[in-house]
């Protein structure tokens, strides 16, 4: 069973888990051009994101960060500690956002990040487009009404 999701403040543990998760994605994508991979604690704290996370006795399992504008919530980041892969953490975090969102939810992920794409598609997200957002970094964008 996944622990409950609760509000989270940026801290060194979150930065570590984010870095670990994005290193795995960078390997899947074949590029380290993922902007969040290069965050510092300061940039993480000043990014203007609402964070939610879940923990177990060993620490942070994963976190999701959102922004919202015009009634649309955007999942800006979803990170899961590699030690918690395939344990339902990402699904629980996405479900939490969907429960909180008053309307549509958007998200983007690396085009070759198939585990994330499967997660979003299972949650009812549909592809809206693909774009090269950084040289060599292609993302697939999703929306869930």
Task: Describe the SSE topology.
Blueprint: E1 6-8, H1 12-29, H2 41-45, E2 50-56, E3 59-69, E4 72-80, H3 89-100, E5 105-110, H4 114-122, E6 126-134, E7 137-144
Parallel strand pairs: 4-5
Antiparallel strand pairs: 1-2, 2-3, 3-4, 5-7, 6-7
Organism: Pseudonocardia petroleophila
Protein name: GNAT family N-acetyltransferase
GO molecular function, one term: acyltransferase activity, transferring groups other than amino-acyl groups
In short:
With 145 residues, this protein is of the alpha+beta class. The chain has helices at 12-29, 41-45, 89-100, 114-122; strands at residues 6-8, 50-56, 59-69, 72-80, 105-110, 126-134, 137-144. A hairpin with a 2-residue loop joins strand 2 (50-56) and strand 3 (59-69).
């Amino acid at each position: 069973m996944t622990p409950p999701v609760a509000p989270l403040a940026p801290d060194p543990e979150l930065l570590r888990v984010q870095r670990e998760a994005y290193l795995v994605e960078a390997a899947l994508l074949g590029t380290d051009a993922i902007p969040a991979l290069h965050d510092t604690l300061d940039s993480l704290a000043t990014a203007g994101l609402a964070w939610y996370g879940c923990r177990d006795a060993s620490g942070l399992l994963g976190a999701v960060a959102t922004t919202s504008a015009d009634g649309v919530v955007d999942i800006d980041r979803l990170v899961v500690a590699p030690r918690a892969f395939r344990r339902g953490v990402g699904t629980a975090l996405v479900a939490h956002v969907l429960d909180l969102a008053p309307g549509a939810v958007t998200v983007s992920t690396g085009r070759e990040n198939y585990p994330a794409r499967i997660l979003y598609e299972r949650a009812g997200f549909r592809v809206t487009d693909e774009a090269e957002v950084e040289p060599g970094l292609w993302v697939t964008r999703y929306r869930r009404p």
